[in-house]
Amino acid sequence: MITYELCLLLRVMPKPELVSVVKRSANAIFEKGGIIRKLENMGTRDMPNKTSVHGIVHHKASYFLFEFNAPPSCIDKLLDEYMRDVDIIRRRIYKKKEVAPFECTLHEDMLPPPYRKNVQDLIAEAKKSDKPRFKYNTGLDYYPFQK
């Protein structure tokens, strides 16, 4: 199954009601065959723009982030269900990208520049490309007049 992130903005309400909305949102994922990997509460804060949903203008919201695995066929059904919920101001589901593994090169970056491999490669490349000198048939290896 594919890993998704669900960002929910819930209207500001007392804690018991907030818990019931989060449980209802989580149960919707479970009913569609999904598995919740992580649930993160990001707190209540001001929204960047005022938003009007279900006939009410909202200036503040409670932010929640779900990380879950689910089949791709159930995503539209989840969005439809969350759209009808009056307690949810905004909902977005994003496909989570897998982080490519990388190798730490801190020990190489801490070396002085002449000893770094990438700097040595640049020096070797510069030595390969020999610039042609400009000659005016004067026998000098420089241009005697100012340009």
Automatic annotation (TrEMBL):
GO terms for cellular component: mitochondrial small ribosomal subunit. CDD domains: bS6_mito. It comes from the Eukaryota. InterPro entries: Ribosomal_bS6, Ribosomal_bS6_sf, Transl_elong_EF1B/ribsomal_bS6. It comes from Asbolus verrucosus. This is Small ribosomal subunit protein bS6m. Transmembrane segments: none annotated. Pfam families: Ribosomal_S6. One of its GO terms (molecular function) is structural constituent of ribosome. Belongs to the bacterial ribosomal protein bS6 family. GO terms for biological process: translation.
